[in-house]
User: Which sequence fits this backbone?
């Protein structure tokens, strides 16, 4: 087993990069540890939401920019779904499907799956 130290003796999260290898038999003798993030104050957790959202949207946008062709195709599907009702003689289910497929494609591309 390979273990990564993520908590200190006080139970707080730490980023040591300390990696230890133990045998499966040794691992079975370890005591279970609690969640090192379990002691995070509610105020700190709520305060981190805007920062986390910012970095998530930034990473999502970077992934979309790094794959322009799939991004344009997915965006076009979404656009056709939204404006196609007045311009295309197709059933609403087709336009709804275009929106759904386009949004899923944007999520796939922006999630770094390509």
Assistant:
């Amino acid at each position: 087993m390979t273990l990564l130290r993520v908590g200190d003796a006080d139970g707080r999260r730490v980023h040591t990069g300390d990696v230890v290898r133990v045998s499966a038999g040794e691992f079975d003798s370890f005591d279970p540890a609690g969640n090192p993030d379990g002691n995070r104050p509610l105020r700190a957790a709520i305060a981190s939401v805007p920062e986390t959202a910012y970095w998530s949207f930034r990473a999502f946008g970077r992934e979309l920019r790094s794959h322009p062709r799939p991004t344009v195709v997915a965006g076009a599907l979404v656009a056709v779904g939204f404006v196609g009702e007045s311009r295309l003689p197709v059933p609403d289910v087709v336009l709804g499907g275009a929106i759904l497929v386009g949004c899923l494609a944007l999520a796939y591309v922006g999630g770094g799956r390509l």
